[in-house]
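Service request form, structural biology core

Requester: graduate student, group of Dr. S.
Request type: structure prediction, single chain
Budget code: on file
Notes: please return the result as C-alpha cells.

Sequence provided:
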Amino acid sequence: MNLKVYRDKINHLIKKISLPFYCPVCEARISHFKPLDEYFVQAYKKYNFTYSLDDFETLNYKNYYCPKCGSSDRDRFIALFLKEQVWRRKITVIQFAPSESLSRFITKLPQVEYRTADLFMKGVDDKVDLMDMHIYQDEIFDIFICSHVLEHVADDKKALSEIYRVLKPNGYAILLVPIPLSLKETDEDLSISEPSIRWQRFGQDDHVRLYAKNDFRDRILYAGFTLREVTVDNYSKEIFYKTGIAFSSVLYIAIKQ
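Core staff response, request fulfilled:
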C-alpha cells in the first residue's frame, strides 16, 4: 500500500469515527440527518394548518430522515427501543403500514418471526383492514407495531380493539400518532372529505382526525390495555441528540395483561 492510499484510508477512518450522529436502524454513523420533505412544509403553509411543526410531540422535522437508509425519527426511536429487548424464545411481530427501513431492521433481529400488513400498500405479507383483522386468530402476536396509522382509519376504537384481540397476553403494541401538544381535545370529523379542509384541520389529506395527547391515552386504556410511555428519561438527551430523536418524543407501549 503506497503512502497516499494509506493516508486516505486513515483519514476516512478518522472521519467516520468523528461523525456526530448515529442511526440505530441501519447502524450508520453520519454527519447529519435530512429534514422533513419540503412538500409537507409548503402544504402546511398553503392550507393554513393550525399547528406549528415545533408543537408536535414525536417529530424532529429538522433531522427527520437518515441519509443512508431513509428511516424517520420515529423509526429510529422504535429501533432504539427494540434493540434493548431480550427474548428467550421466538416471538411474532407484525408491523402495519411498514416502513422499508424499519422492516429491514426487524428482519435481522434474533428470535423474531415477522409479518407486514396493510389494506392498500403493495408488497406486504397480508392485505388486511386494521378495523377488521379476521384473517388472524385471537392472541397470535407478541408485538404489534402501528405507527401513524390510527389517524387514517374511520373507527380507531375498532382498530384498537382488534389490536388487543390479536395480541397474546403480556404482548404489547407500539403505537404512534401525530400529536400537537397544544391541542386539548381530539379534532375529528368523518364527514369531511375535501382534501384542503383535511390538510387544514388534520395535517394531511388522508387523515380523519388529529389527536390530543390525553385523549389518545384514554382511547388506549379504554381498549383494555395498560399503558407505558417511553421517553427521553428512559435514555438520555445525549442519545436522543445523536440519533436525531426529539426530546419531546414518546413511544406509547400498550400492554395486554
